Amino acid sequence: MKKFLYLSILPLLLMMNCGPVEENQQEETQQSMNKAQDIDAEKRIQELGIELVIPNPPTANYLKAKRAGNIVYLAGHGPDKPDGTQVIGRLGEDMQVEGGYDAARYTGISLLSSLKAEIGDLNKVKSIVKAQGMVNAHPTFKQHSQVINGFSDLMVEVFGEKGKHARAAIGMSSLPNNIAVEIDMIVELEE
Questions:
Q1: Residue 16 has pLDDT above 50, yes or no
Q2: Which of 61, 69, 110, 112 is a plausible cystine mate for 80, CB 3.0–4.6 Å?
Q3: Span 33-44, mean pLDDT?
């Protein structure tokens, strides 16, 4: 009987002991979030050696960025290289994951360029909310998410925790001008 009583009380004792640990975890999470808010995105861009450019105007009847209150919607951007060319080709056919990862990173830089042109200062970003990554892929290619990691990793490098976002990584049979990657994103600004 004592053994049964001890075994039935043991889970309660363990649960009671978890309280302070949980509070410590919440405190650490809050401290981590506070540090994320201290990141200077403009300075991080410079430290990473990233050169933002003035985006080319859209080639059709749309906007590269549209602000609605404190939300900015960015249209699909491609992998624009510093020399003015784009990364062209199909994943699994013309290039592999590493080349696609670089293309997604270039696309992220292009998106940041349009975002800065729209809002003036990247330190106004409260959160990168969502991104949709489209990969120009051969039907047998299966590593779409590893390609779009090039974009996601860049957002975290620049914004820290604010750069973490929801996303989709989708394979497409083709993309405009045979670009390797196209990504659009939604950004929340500070009030």
A1: no
A2: 110
A3: 76
